[in-house]
């Protein structure tokens, strides 16, 4: 869609030292829009340590039970990507908690054809797996598949299918309620309880917590349940996007883990004091209240990070790169086409693991709705022109 010109950086290097007003502008923008978010790292560490301790307690409580196995949590979203459109005290720290089937069960993905969405939606069918130990007859293990209901009832063996499922499908709302109850009961035994008061906030499909210090400072945390697709960086998420209300057995495809991994890859490859995260934060602050999607902005930046040499994202190029981002975004609005970053993208870093279908898939257009609504396109272009 858009051609990116790297040559103008080289042409401007000779006069850059004399262009002090531009450097002054960078300083003004940095101060006015609070482009640095130094508190993110320390708060991320608190959240990561909390999840590690909670999951350790869950392993002690739920090992050899019918409850799903909770895998190590993965930080996602802007806070774990290193930027935020909000002030640091308003950032929600989101982590994916991957679920694995417990012993005696298996998860099978089935396309959900009952609910229409631009994203792929799936149901997780829970099936019983034989756990009979005929090879070791001295070890008596009850098998949900082959032992009688009377034997199971006598030994008080509960079933995942009868507790956290609706029909044969894993239920996101029941998972959330189970985990919220666990967090409340386990809070007193985790080390963080000595430094924070914890409140579980209402949430149907995730576990939202607010950690509060004696000083009154709060730390919002959201735990989202997920299931990994194969060994890729693409997950199915229990928490739908805003304004979406799918059935409780519908799990939506999420690219949040792949996005966080992409930004970690860029941070390792970029020059010291790279401005890409500040550009993203600045543009997000500029677009605040405009109606333009922050996700579309982030997708734009991800595309440009693979199109513009990382050496050209040094701090002194902040205004130039910001201009590139807004121009690219406007070009996409004009064309009514913004390619999804993870579908059919030949510039994808090798470190990002995608299902084979993603590599072969046709591009997914994030601006498809504009092709069907000319008035919305005109309004979006007017808003961007004002910026």
From TrEMBL:
Region (Disordered): 1-20
InterPro entries: ITPRIP-like, MAB21L/cGLR
Basic and acidic residues: compositionally biased ranges: 1-10
Compositionally biased intervals (Acidic residues): 11-20
CC per GO annotation: membrane
Protein name in UniProt: IPIL1 protein
């Amino acid at each position: 869609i858009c051609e990116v010109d790297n040559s103008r950086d080289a042409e401007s290097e000779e006069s850059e030292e004399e262009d002090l007003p531009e450097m002054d502008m960078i300083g003004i923008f940095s101060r006015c829009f609070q482009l640095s978010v130094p508190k993110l790292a320390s708060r991320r560490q608190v959240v990561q340590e909390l999840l590690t301790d909670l999951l350790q307690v869950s392993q002690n409580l739920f090992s050899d039970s019918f409850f799903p196995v909770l895998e190590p949590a993965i930080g996602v979203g802007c806070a774990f990507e290193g930027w935020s459109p909000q002030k640091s005290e308003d950032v929600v720290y989101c982590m994916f908690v991957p679920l694995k089937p417990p012993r005696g069960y298996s998860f099978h993905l089935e396309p959900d054809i009952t609910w229409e969405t631009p994203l792929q939606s799936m149901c997780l069918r829970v099936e019983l797996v034989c756990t009979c130990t005929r090879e070791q007859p001295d070890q008596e293990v009850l098998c949900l598949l082959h032992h009688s209901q009377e034997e199971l009832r006598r030994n008080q063996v509960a079933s995942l299918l009868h507790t956290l499922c609706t029909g044969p499908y894993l239920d996101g709302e029941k998972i959330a309620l189970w985990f919220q109850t666990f967090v409340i009961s386990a809070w007193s035994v985790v080390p963080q309880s000595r430094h924070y008061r914890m409140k579980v906030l209402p949430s149907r499909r995730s576990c939202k917590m607010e950690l509060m210090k004696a000083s009154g400072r709060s730390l919002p945390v959201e735990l989202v349940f997920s299931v990994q697709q194969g060994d890729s960086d693409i997950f199915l998420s229990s928490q739908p996007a805003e304004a979406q209300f799918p059935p409780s057995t519908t799990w939506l495809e999420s690219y949040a883990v792949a996005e966080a991994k992409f930004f970690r890859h860029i941070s390792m490859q970029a020059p010291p004091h790279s401005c890409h995260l500040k550009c993203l934060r600045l543009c997000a602050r500029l677009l605040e209240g405009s109606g333009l999607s922050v996700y579309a902005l982030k997708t734009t930046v991800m595309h440009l990070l693979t199109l513009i040499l990382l050496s050209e994202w040094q701090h002194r190029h902040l205004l130039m790169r910001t201009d590139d981002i807004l121009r690219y975004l406007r070009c996409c609005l004009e064309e009514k086409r913004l390619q999804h970053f993870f579908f059919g993208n030949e510039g994808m870093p090798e470190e990002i693991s995608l299902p084979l279908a993603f590599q072969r898939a046709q591009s997914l257009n994030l601006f498809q709705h504009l092709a069907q609504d000319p008035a919305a396109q005109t309004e979006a272009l007017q808003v961007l022109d004002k910026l």
